[in-house]
Amino acid sequence: MNNITISELQERATSIRKNIIEMLHESGSGHPGGSLSAADILTVLFFHEMNLDPKNPKLDNRDRFVLSKGHAAPVLYATLVEKGFFPKEELFKLRKINAMLQGHPDMKGTPGVEMSTGSLGQGFSAACGMAIAGKLDKKDARVYALLGDGELQEGLVWEAAMSASHYKLDNLTAIVDYNRLQIDGFNDDVMGVNPVDDKFKAFGWHVIEVDGHSIDALIRVFDEAKNTKGKPTAIIAKTIKGKGVSFMENAVEWHGTAPSEDDKAQALKELGGEK
Questions:
Q1: Structural domains counted in the chain
Q2: Does residue 135 lie in a domain region?
Q3: 3-state secondary structure of 67
């Protein structure tokens, strides 16, 4: 666990949100809504919870993070920059030919990315495999997987959930970014996923619900997950899509739309000004 205050974590989360806005404006494409909703979650993981070394991304006993909802790559890239895995200027080459940062995470080309993801459900399955490997190798490292709530519509998710329970993967934590929206609208209108908590419980998981924007609460639930033995933990993080930028919050049109120059200026103003 890293020695960092709540206020410092909040500042990191704001910086990550600014990075997301700036990089997506520069690229002209990408996914702001579900990136902004997950910023506090990744902040707590990367700056408080996880054992990581930016100078040694392949540290043997490191914790692993898998962004199963790979289209939210901007939040991962923005976090990795804040953590020091690569220089900030790489953000402004997002989605450019021959650049490091692709539209979805690339484990072969980006330091700090543990799994290439984008096809929904597969990242979660890979995370389960990592957790099984950790058990077999008798490692202390933990595995964290972030899923979108719309992603739960994939059958592959529930095969992985069943497997994780069967193998008693208490070194695995799944976090559901429960912002209620997906590309075509509200989940309830497209394909309802509720009750999410009861589904994971039925599959043998320890389940915790949390305000996904409360740094304090996120720290507590990650601690509870670490202390839960004999079963994996699912954290249902209640979030707001587009969190931090008023005109993006709870707005489906910002699932995959890059901000214009005016949008960028307004968003950065709301987040506290240019970096």
A1: 1
A2: yes
A3: strand
